From TrEMBL:
<keyword id="KW-0067">ATP-binding</keyword>
<keyword id="KW-0547">Nucleotide-binding</keyword>
<dbReference type="InterPro" id="IPR002611">
    <property type="entry name" value="IstB_ATP-bd"/>
</dbReference>
<protein>
    <submittedName>
        <fullName>ATP-binding protein</fullName>
    </submittedName>
</protein>
<feature type="domain" description="IstB-like ATP-binding">
    <location>
        <begin position="175"/>
        <end position="285"/>
    </location>
</feature>
<dbReference type="GO" id="GO:0006260">
    <property type="term" value="P:DNA replication"/>
</dbReference>
<dbReference type="InterPro" id="IPR027417">
    <property type="entry name" value="P-loop_NTPase"/>
</dbReference>
<dbReference type="Pfam" id="PF01695">
    <property type="entry name" value="IstB_IS21"/>
</dbReference>
<dbReference type="GO" id="GO:0005524">
    <property type="term" value="F:ATP binding"/>
</dbReference>
Length: 319
């Protein structure tokens, strides 16, 4: 996973590569046309020499108006030559991907919107590669797969309950801001926790916010790498700390070590202090087990700082 700055730089590199390709393709087209139409090449050379003559006259003194008329004549000659060869005036101009900035990445002194668009796509690619489902949508969450018989603990059917939870998640995504609350999705495997978390991620990304996804197992694996030192400014951990929204999926599947607990505490505490929302999912349904696994210090920050939603029903991944 990359930090926001790394994504920004990657987007600028992609835009620079696009610009270079466009310029090279335009130059290749120009050379091919000149090779096929010698008169076109001669007219272009005449215009180039007239332009140089004007610049020299302006610098050293002379009849500037005559030099300008000569340049205008060669421009007209080039235009006629292009028409006779079957080309329009824009034939050899680079076809830039972004008409706003000409693939420079900057517009009116600030980053162009195309930079954010590319950074958002790169982040989507990261999430799709890291998550088991890829980014999901609310429209693909099928509540009809949940039972419509009343669940005693709920007082309503799992289907009715999940319909309400789906709308709650949709509303959360639509109204998302840096001040949004943390969410904790608890429930047995296959009940749609990851699906809804990734649907929120998809919608929040589309709104222009930066979203990161990681499973708890991937987090623990990263932390267990030999010589890993989270105080050294590791970019991966910084990315998790600074994301506008972090999805921490499948708590309870990671291998727990003192280092895991320590860095998990650091991550959660940093995001709480900076007011950045996090969505957690876990198959652990007993809060006492949750506390025993993660220690009271860590668990209290997750359970106490989150709006908890329990998921009900049967495993939706089973036929």
């Amino acid at each position: 996973m990359r930090t926001k700055d790394e994504l920004f730089r990657a987007a600028l590199r992609e835009i620079a590569a696009r610009r270079q390709r466009a310029v090279m393709q335009a130059e290749d087209a120009r050379r091919a046309a000149f090779a096929a139409h010698p008169a076109l090449a001669e007219a272009d050379d005449a215009q180039r020499r007239a332009g140089l003559a004007l610049a020299k006259t302006a610098a050293l003194g002379g009849d500037v108006e005559a030099a300008r008329r000569a340049l205008a004549d060669t421009e007209e000659g080039l235009h006629r030559a292009m028409q006779e060869a079957g080309y329009d005036t824009a034939a050899f101009r680079p076809a830039f991907s972004c008409p706003l900035c000409g693939d420079t990445g900057m517009r009116n002194g600030v980053p162009c919107s195309c930079v954010a668009d590319i950074a958002r796509r790169l982040r989507r690619d990261e999430i799709n590669a890291a998550s088991p489902l890829g980014l999901c949508q609310f429209s693909t969450f099928d509540v009809t797969r949940y039972a419509d018989q009343v669940e005693p603990e709920l007082g309503i059917s799992p289907r009715t309950y999940m319909e309400k939870l789906l709308e709650t998640c949709r509303s959360y995504a639509q109204k998302f801001s840096p001040k949004s609350t943390n969410l904790l999705f608890m429930g047995h495997a296959g009940l749609g926790k990851t699906h809804l978390a990734l649907a929120i991620a998809d919608a929040v990304l589309a709104s222009g916010y930066d979203v990161l996804y990681t499973s708890s197992a991937a987090l623990a694996a990263r932390l267990s790498r030999e010589h890993f030192d989270y105080d050294s400014g590791d970019e991966w951990l910084i990315a998790c700390q600074e994301a506008d929204l972090l999805i921490l999926d499948d708590l309870g599947t990671e291998y727990i070590t003192p280092l895991t607990i320590s860095v998990l505490y650091e991550l959660i505490n940093t995001r709480m202090l900076t007011g950045r929302p996090t969505i957690y999912t876990t198959n652990i349904t007993d809060q006492s087990v949750f506390v025993a696994r993660y220690t009271e210090k860590v668990a209290s920050r997750m359970l106490g700082g989150c709006k908890v939603y329990k998921f009900f029903g049967t495993d939706q991944r089973l036929p």
